[in-house]
Amino acid sequence: MNDFWDNIYLGNSLRSWAITIGGIVLGFILIKVFKKIALQWLKRWSLRTATSIDDLIVAAIEKTIIPISYFLVIYLLLHNLDFPEKVRNIIRVAILLVITFFVLQLITKVIQYFVLGILKKQEDGDLKQKQARGLLVIVKVAVWILGIVFLLSNLGYDVTSIIAGLGIGGIAIALAAQTILGDLFSYFVILFDRPFEIGDFIIIDDKMGVVEYIGIKTTRLRTLSGEQLICSNKDLTDSRVHNYKRMQKRRVVFSIGVTYQTPADVLESIPQLVKEIIEKNDNVIYDRGHFSGFGDFSLNFEFGYYVLSSDYNIYMNTQQKILMNIYRSFEKERIDFAYPTQTILFDQQNMVRVGPSLGSVQP
């Protein structure tokens, strides 16, 4: 019987193979038991706590520690067998790849958890979390690059030459992609300086819309007509941006012209009449009203007030209501609005045109 277990297969005795395979099976069973009992208890415990850090720990154990444990059991038990040096190197490289992959995943998850957790506690945390997606992509790329360099170092490669090569390559890429890098830096300006955020209504030159997405290179707006407008981040940071979402009140200035035939006492009553009409509206502050000057065909008045809302529909509804009430009041008081006219005078010799007139046409 001892002769049977002493038989050699692939450089190792059957006894060594049996111990190794049995150890792997036993290790897998212990991991399964831990996952079934201990991990389930940890999950139930984390659900009863107010903090979310324990959820991160449980997720790290389930998604990182347990998978790594399976590979470590295999590696440690296979390490007791005699293999050619080439096979040992393959096993070592494989275990390094697996461990590096899961560790880098864990690091990125931890960074994401803390970054999003900090942003969530701030004002408008949900919006800031959406804006930080591009930043997290850059962080993840940097972590994976460092992880790959660490892996190559452990595999025996000279990483100093690789880092030097990356530096030279980075300079070449920077020169070739100045526009992309400009948009990238502008993304950081938008993210940290916050000239606008997702959900803000902004105007850039003759373009306007609601900010839907802020990416690493572009920002996307939904215009009033419905289409999506895509702008480069650099164009936005180089432009004058009007952010109407942050407007606390809207100033409105409008003019009215009445005919020159209007009596002086009626002219004096117009500012007070319009003031009373404006002040009857909710969420409105009257600013001023004046007889502003003599026009070519009208006596001009200028009025100003504030709408205590940034909503465009509220502003338009208020303006419409005020103008309609002014029209009705002028109609009731028989005050005539002026309109462009010309006076034509005839004599016996020539036709002489003199204009514009004072609001009437004379033969």
User: What is the rounded Rg?
Assistant: 39 Å
Round the mean pLDDT to the nearest integer and report it: 78
Biggest sheet statistics: 5 strands, antiparallel
Structural class: alpha+beta
Number of strands: 12
Structure description:
α3 (53-78) packs antiparallel against α4 and α10 (264-279) packs antiparallel against α11. The chain has three domains: 2-176; 195-243, Roll (SH3 type barrels); 250-333, Alpha-Beta Plaits (2-Layer Sandwich), CATH 3.30.70.100. The strands form four sheets. A five-stranded antiparallel β-sheet has the order 6-5-4-3-7. Strands 8-10-9 form a three-stranded antiparallel β-sheet. It contains eleven helices and twelve strands. It has helices spanning 2-5, 14-47, 53-78, 85-120, 125-131, 133-154, 159-176, 178-193, 233-238, 264-279, 312-333; strands at 8-9, 12-13, 201-204, 207-214, 218-222, 228-232, 241-243, 250-258, 284-294, 299-307, 343-346, 351-354. The longest helix has 36 residues, at 85-120. The protein is of the alpha+beta class. Mean pLDDT is 78; it is low at 357-363.
